[in-house]
Every structure is written in C-alpha cells, then in structure tokens.
Design a protein that fits this description.
328 residues; mainly beta; Immunoglobulin-like; Jelly Rolls; 2 domains; 14-stranded mixed beta sheet; 25 strands; 51% strand
Length: 328
C-alpha cells in the first residue's frame, strides 16, 4: 500500500540583485492522499519452473525443458515458444516480478543471443520489452532476463501466470543451442490493512531572511500516519524524484530531494523503532517505523526544509514522495 505525497516550495518577492539578499518565501508542503486497497507482505518467489509444452521452429524443442545438456537447436531468426509452466501461488497474491532463465551456447562460429518476450493469454498478446539474453559463446552459459521487480511492462494477475496462459517466446539471433528455459514468479501476499495520512496539506508559511541565516525552516505542525493491520508491519518513505521540480524565471538549481528532512515526533502504543532524528528524504525507501498488529496505530511526522542561496532561487519548487506500508 502506498500514499503519494507532494511538497511545494514557493518563493515570493523581488529578484535577489535588487533585494540585497533579503528575500521572503512562501513555502508549502502538499500531501496528496492516494488511497490503497491492501497491505502487502514481503516479496517471495516460486522455484524455477520448467515448461511442459513447446511449438515453433527450433529443432528438438522438448530438449529445452530440463538442465541436462540435451539441447534444442534454433537457426538464426528462428522463433520458438515454451509454455505449460506449472506455477503454483499461495492464495491471494500480487505479482511483483517475473524472471526467465536460459541455459544456452552458440551453434556454430558466431556468438548467439536470444530475444525474450512473454504472453499472458496463451499467445494472443505479447509483451514488448526488448529483453535479450546473450552473448552465448562456445561454453554453456546461464543468463536471466526480468527479475524480482520486473513486470515486463504490465500488471499481472495470478491467472495470467498459470498453465496455458503464460508463454515464453524466444527469437534466435544467430544459431543457438538451448539446454534449458525456466521461469520464476515473484509475488507478495495481499493482506487486510489500511494506511491513512493527514493532513493532506502541510504549510510552512512565509519565510524570511532569518530562515536563510539559520539554514532551515521547520514546520510547526505534524502529519499523522494511521495504520491498521492484522500482522506486524513497516512504514517507509521515499522521494519520487531525486530533485525538486522548479518553476520560475531563474536558472534551475537542481535542489536535492534530501533538502526536505523528516522525523517521527511522537507515536502511539504498538509502534516500535520510530526514526526520531531528522533524516533527509531519499530515492531509496527509508523506514519510518515498525509496529505490531492493531487498529488505528498512529505515528506523527514533522518536517523541515533546507533554505540556502545556492539551491533555492525565487520561484516554486515541487517534490512528491511516497509512504509505503508492507508486512515483513
């Protein structure tokens, strides 16, 4: 579950050259609430799953079902399809990634590669990722395409990775020997839960030269995060962009997202390990707090923003960030 928030930093007043360095600034941090539908568990994966059917232009296609040094042969430009993957998923889950493994080597003097796409409806439609595995040389080599967070350009349902729906299409770039093709599906359990954030708008108000002298402007309010979960949980936060989006008449100064800092100022029962020191917002997810199962568990977060002449020209700055709730 995610809540995407926005931060806006607005400057008002005359240009720096005519104000002799004295600027006032209106600053707003805007929280735009996006409602989620469930609480996700930590990602897990199936084992490598072998195919049970194939068709196309490779010779001896079934020899690609297992890792046994018995191989199918594809001439350059040949296309072949593998399916019948007996993917088993536990209950209601969210698909978060798909990975394809290929064990192959060249069939001839020229190194080979394999272009790979997936179908979710038995071959009626295909992804268009441009994934390619290679080069394959004269020795057996195992390569993978896709991965734990790679969805091949679409959202998948559990039925679409089931028997008869999921197909792997291989296109040989130069002649290739294929010993083994397999798929692995990454998933996360969907569990009842909720995450809410209020207020939706956090307003720093007007800033003065004193804030530039101090280097910071602190928000006097708090943003309350409320969690309901039937198991242990983690809330994290991450910036959606490495820099603020600037609108104004001056050259953009690439104000880093880390100039917005946050900390947990208070937390209720059931909340553990809150991060209580100011922490720069980052692209990578950073843990805000953990907690136990419960209803209406709350965390209060406050913010401050770095104010300097080097990265904060007159104009408007916007930054969005996302809270994420998962069950470890």
């Amino acid at each position: 579950m995610e809540h995407r928030m926005g931060a806006a930093l607005a400057h008002q007043g005359c240009p720096l050259v005519s104000c002799h360095g004295r600027r006032t600034m209106g600053l707003r941090l805007l929280g735009i609430l996006v409602l989620g539908v469930g609480l996700g568990g930590a990602a897990q994966s199936t084992p490598w799953v072998n195919p049970n059917l194939d068709y196309g232009k490779f010779q001896n296609g079934p020899r690609g079902y297992f890792r046994d040094n018995l191989y199918a042969v594809g001439a350059g430009g040949a296309v072949h399809h593998y399916g019948g993957f007996a993917v088993s998923l536990p209950g209601e889950v969210e698909i978060v990634g798909i990975e394809v493994l290929l064990r192959a080597k060249k069939d001839g003097v020229t190194n080979a590669s394999l272009e790979v796409e997936l179908s979710w409806n038995g071959g009626a439609s295909w992804t268009a990722t441009g994934h390619q595995a290679g080069p394959f040389t004269g020795a057996w080599r195992e390569l993978t395409v896709g991965g734990p967070t790679n969805l091949w350009g679409r959202t998948w349902t559990p039925a679409e990775v089931g028997w008869g729906a999921l197909l792997v299409r291989l296109w040989a770039v130069n002649a290739v020997r294929l010993d083994w093709v397999a798929v692995r599906v990454y998933y996360r359990a969907e569990l009842p839960g909720s995450l809410t954030v209020a207020p939706e708008v956090v307003d720093f108000g007007s800033l003065t030269l004193a804030h530039y002298d101090a280097g910071w402007a602190e928000w006097s309010g708090v943003q309350r995060i409320t969690v309901t979960s039937n198991r242990a949980w983690i809330v994290s936060v991450a910036a959606d962009s490495p820099t603020w989006l600037y609108t104004g008449s001056f050259p953009a100064l690439a104000k880093p997202c880390g100039h917005l800092e946050w900390r947990v100022s208070a937390a209720g029962p059931g909340v553990t390990v809150p991060r209580t020191t100011f922490t720069p917002l980052a692209i990578a997810e950073t843990q805000v707090a953990k907690g136990t199962a419960g209803i209406g568990l709350w965390i209060e977060v406050t913010f401050r923003v770095r104010v300097d002449y080097e990265t904060t020209s007159p104009g408007t700055y916007q930054l969005s960030f996302t809270y994420t709730l998962v069950a470890p």
